[in-house]
Design goal:
2% strand; 69% helix; mainly alpha; 20 helices; two-stranded antiparallel sheet
Amino acid sequence: MFFYVLRRILWAIPTLLLISLLTFWMSQCAPRDPRLEYGEHEFKSGGYQNQVPQMIAEARKQNLFLPDFYFTITLSAFPDTLYKILPLSRRNKLVRQTAKTGNWAAQIRFEQFVWIVETKIAQLPDSLPQKRPLNAEISKLFSQFNFDTLSFVFKRMHAQTNTLPEMEPWVDSLEAASSAVLNQKTPQKLWLPAFYWNGTQNRYHQWLSHFLRGDWGRSRSMDRPIWQELRPALWASMTLSVISISLAYLIAIPLGVFLARYRKHWIDPLIQSLLLFFYAMPMFVLGALITGLFVSDAAVFPLIRSFSINPLEGSGKYALIWFFENMPVMLLPVLVILLHALAILTLQMRGGILEVIGQDYIRTAWAKGSDARKVYWTHALRNAIFPVIATFSSLFPAIFAGTVIVERLFNIYGLGSKTISAIQNADYPMLFIIVLLTALISVVANLLADLLFAYLDPRIRFTQS
C-alpha cells in the first residue's frame, strides 16, 4: 500500500508542475501592470524620463529584470537580455524594427540618438521659432518603423537647424544612425536560432519557489499579499464544497442502494424523476427558487430573513466558531449544491448495484441463505461503489467551481466573489493564483479517488505497476 501511494504521489508531481507552468505562461500573456508603461504623449515629449526611476523600482519588485524560464530560444538578431527592456511598448517597437533589418545594435544606437536630440531640443529656449517644428519632427522618430521615408524628416530638420549651429551636429549624427540601420542590415541573423541558458535565476523558478513557501505575491488592486486576501475566501469555499459533497455521498449511497433494491416499486421512478429535475435545473435557477421559498419574511416557508455572513478575516474568531455561528445561513447554499450533486451519485450508485446484483457471487450469497440486507449492503455494495468513487475525481472540482455562482447568489464571501472581483479589477496575479488553486484541487481529488480505490480493492495496488 505504501509503495502504491508513493507511486501515485510521484505521478502527480509532474502533473502539478505542468499545471504551474501553464498558469505561469497565461500570467505572462496577461496585460502588464499600468505602472510599467507610459503613454505615447509622455514618450514623445520626454516625460517618460520622470517615470523611469518609479518604473525600474516596480519592475524590480515584480522580478521583471529576470528571464521568464530556465532557458531562452530566440533568433541571433536579438540579445539574451531582451527581457530587461521596459516598457513593453518600447520592447515591441525595437523587436518590430529589428525584424526588418536583423541589426539590433544599429536600432539601439538610433534610439539613443533620438533621445539625445530630443533632450537637446528641449533645452532650447521656448522663444525660438524653430523649437516647435523640431519637436514635431523628432516626435515622428519615436514610433518610426519605415526608415526609407526618413529622408524627408531629416530634410525638414536641417532646414530648421541651419540657423542653429549647436544643433546641426546632433541632427547629422542622428541621420547617420538612421543610415546605418538601412545600410548595415544583417538578415542572416533572422534565420539563425540562439539558445541561452538562464539557470535558476528566472521568473518561473522564483514564482514557483515563492508559491511553495506560501508567498503568492501581492494583489494588484488591493496591494496586499494574495494569501491574506484569499485565505478567508478559500476557507468559505472549501467549507461549502466539503460539506456539500460529504452530505451528497452520505445520502446518495444508501438512497442508490434503496432504489436498486426496490427498482420495481413505484417510488423508484418517482425519486429518479425528482433527482433528474434538480440536476437539469441550472444552479442559479435552483438557488433563486430556494431563496424565494425560504428567505425573507414574505417567503413561502420563511427560515431566515436575509443572507449576511461576515468574512472570517477581521471577525476575531476561530474558523470553527465562525462556521457554527453562520451554519443557519450556510444551510441553503449547501442545499443548492447538494441537490445538484445528489442525482449524479444516486443514479451512479443505483446503476452499480444493478450491474453486480446478477453476478455469480451474489447468487451464491442468496443460495447460502443470506438475507436481502446483507446481500445488498455487504456483498453488492463493495463492488458497486467503485463508479461512485471514480465520480469523485470530477465531481468535487465541479462542485468547487459551482460555488462561484452560489456564493454570489447567497452573498457569501468566498472564492467566487474574489474571482469576479479580480476579473473586474484586472487583478491578474490574484486571478491566476485562483486558477492554479482550482487546478491543484482537481489533481488532489483524482489522487484521493485513486487512494480510495486502492483501499477498497487490494487487487488495484498489487497489480498496477
